[in-house]
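Researcher: Let's do a round of design. I'm pasting the structure tokens now; please hold your answer until I've finished.
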């Protein structure tokens, strides 16, 4: 199969300026306006000698912690920023969705932006006309077609941008983690459309921290670390390596122990922990325990603090849901400023695969804070007695560990 995209030795260097000032008073600061400042520059390589080929119709996942160079690579591929070294050979029309509003003009209406974006991609007006209704139907922005884009919410802009990028049929579709801005329903809709794109023989490059989505959508994955290629290969091999490496650290990288910055909410999630056998992990064996600890802070009295946990499969469909009210567990009034709610499932009866978790913090039934797709994990197959064969995923989504089997001899009637 011929390569539709060739990335050869791409590198990107940035210069970071550091200014040193020692003025302590207003008078000294004003004098300093007329003095030369001591400025030093530091070189930072965001990418170093990245090379890989993409075949026509292939879907490639690009993973790595924040600062690994993923977004910089996509910006270079999209010709938003030039590389310091190396070259790119593209043999197809490329559309990119990197940030909300990218490629749109705020003063133009939604209708005008569809045609403007299409013309930038090299589409003829007849081609855009043929897909226009599908674009608007998918985006759900029909009522606001003739409203300037600057009056759209970020969610509306995202829906329209994705619809334009996906439905105008570029040979190469480049998508960054921008999909995380949308709600869960829209994310599922987008992932479904991206699957359709790959089945139609077009190519996708997809950056995401959602390992379940990458595993489902992408046949091959590239793992970037500090601007270099750490590993490349089938997604089923690279993603477990990435999760086991401990590379996923920090709240934005779906780690097993996440801390959230303080804000002005009256009550919020401070920290989430995900454990098995009392250890933080993103690898779980079938039938092992699964524990979630929600650390919260509050400035209000909680009548009945609640935690809800939703486990979604790689297609975004919920397969498990728990909250303490459903299990008739009530904590009563809590006047503590800080607290921890924990939930432990003795046996996580899920089939092997990738999953992600939503966590809800509530007072009675009113949500106080929600963290969507805040944790990705992998279930690994483990035969119960060392001799059993793997269960058939085609038929099972949830397995049962303690099933009683019996064979008896009976005389015919």
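Researcher: That's everything. Go ahead.
Model: Designed sequence:
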């Amino acid at each position: 199969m011929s390569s539709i995209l060739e990335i050869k030795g791409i590198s990107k260097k940035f210069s970071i300026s550091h200014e040193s000032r020692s003025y302590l008073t207003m008078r000294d600061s004003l004098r300093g306006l007329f003095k030369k400042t001591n400025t030093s520059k530091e070189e930072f390589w965001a990418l170093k000698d990245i090379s890989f080929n993409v075949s026509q119709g292939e879907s490639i996942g690009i993973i790595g912690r924040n600062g690994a160079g993923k977004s910089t690579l996509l910006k270079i591929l999209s010709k938003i920023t030039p590389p310091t070294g190396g070259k790119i050979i593209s043999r197809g029309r490329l559309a990119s969705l990197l940030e909300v509003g990218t490629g749109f003009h705020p003063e133009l209406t939604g209708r005008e932006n569809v045609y403007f974006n299409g013309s930038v991609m090299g589409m003829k007006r007849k081609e855009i006309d043929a897909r226009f209704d599908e674009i608007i139907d998918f985006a759900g922005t029909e009522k606001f077609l003739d409203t300037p884009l600057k009056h759209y919410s970020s969610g509306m802009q995202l829906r329209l941008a994705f619809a334009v990028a996906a439905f105008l049929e570029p040979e190469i579709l480049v998508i960054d983690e921008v999909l995380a801005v949308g709600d869960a329903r829209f994310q599922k809709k987008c992932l479904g459309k991206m699957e359709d794109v790959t089945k139609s023989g077009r190519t996708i490059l997809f950056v995401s921290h959602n390992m379940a989505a990458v595993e489902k959508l992408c046949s091959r994955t590239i793992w970037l670390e500090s601007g270099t290629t750490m590993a490349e290969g089938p997604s089923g091999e690279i993603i477990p390596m990435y999760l086991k490496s401990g590379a996923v650290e920090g709240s934005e990288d779906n780690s097993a122990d996440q801390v959230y910055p303080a804000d002005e909410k009256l009550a919020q999630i401070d920290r989430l922990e995900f454990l098995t056998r009392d250890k933080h992990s993103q690898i779980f064996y079938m039938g092992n325990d699964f524990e979630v600890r929600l650390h919260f802070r509050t400035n209000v009295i909680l009548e009945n603090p609640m935690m809800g946990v939703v486990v979604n499969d790689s297609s975004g469909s919920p397969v498990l849901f728990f909250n303490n009210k459903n299990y008739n567990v009530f904590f009563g009034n809590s006047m503590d400023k800080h607290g921890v709610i924990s939930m432990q499932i003795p046996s996580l009866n899920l089939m092997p695969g990738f999953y992600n978790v939503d966590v809800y913090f509530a007072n009675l039934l009113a949500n106080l804070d929600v963290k969507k797709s805040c944790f990705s994990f992998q279930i690994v197959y483990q035969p119960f007695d060392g001799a059993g064969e793997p269960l058939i995923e085609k038929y099972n989504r949830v397995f049962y560990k303690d099933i009683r089997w019996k064979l008896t001899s009976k005389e015919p009637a």
